[in-house]
Specification:
The protein is mostly helical. Helix content is 79%, strand content 0%. The two termini are 41 Å apart.
Amino acid sequence: MDKSNHNLMFTNTLGYTKQSLILFLLIILAVFSAIVASTNGSFEVSVVNLIRGSATDLQSLVIMQIRLPRVILSALVGASLGLSGAALQGLFRNPLADPGLIGVSAGAALGAAIVIIISPAFLIDSSIGPFLLPLAGISGAAGVIFFLYLLTKGFGHQGVTYMLLVGIAVNAIAGVAIGILTYISSDAELRTLTFWTMGSFGGVTWNLLTPAIVVILGAMLYMAPAYRALDLIQLGEVEAYRLGVDVKGLKYRVIMSAAAAVGASVALSGMIGFVGLVVPHVARMLGGVSHRYLLPASATLGAALMISADMLARMVVQPAELPIGLITSAIGSPFFLWLIFRMKQNVY
């Protein structure tokens, strides 16, 4: 083995070790954030008492029925947005790609808006009332996914290009429909719709969370094995195809799994911006661009960020609660501007 090959192997091993260390630290950060978020808020619970098993019945009830479902949902939503953002940015080779790009978030928002504004009172008061909003959001997201597939399945290798164009059109149409619903809504309905579109994890229960875990985790696990193909497609679609990548299959695998994960997330939590855009960039700056590292790192960092942001939203204006979308936008928008200026400097 010559010296150059030896140096290359040493460099690769060093890079894998660094990335493994970063992943381990991100997992520790996510777990620590979950513990802190579960025990802090307007009603604080001692971690020591929980470990010893000496927590009161009220403390146990707060943790198990209110805090824990909320922390799990925020972790799932953050992980799905971060992972989807990293995969879509890699697929399109565009650092500004976002999970909302293909219109699934807008479809879920439209479904929820329809339920909030025009659903009959007897449905809201019935046993299916608590499930109406997430079901409508998931139905809207699923409708967009089916619409995308139906309109693009005949375009061959150009299908994804048309899918993006259809996604832009869906975003515009959904925006118009939500605007009309907002115009005809009452004050109470308008307040509910506005708060939902800003995002919140309040009100989640185990009954709502269980199917969300199945859908979101299933979509993420289906997307994760695409890491090697996403690395190869950075060389260009033609080169990736020559290296054995099923480019068309990869595109539909990433887009449909991202659509399912993001659609379920938006249906339960509302519109949460910038996470899918910001988190992958932070993960790249920490450990590099290899998707074998980037996908799990973006998921873990997204979970930690969302858990922390939700805890901040609960604690800033106690006993009231800030919309989670305000927190993520406050964090993400300055980073987005910085990213644009950085790209401009690289051009010149």
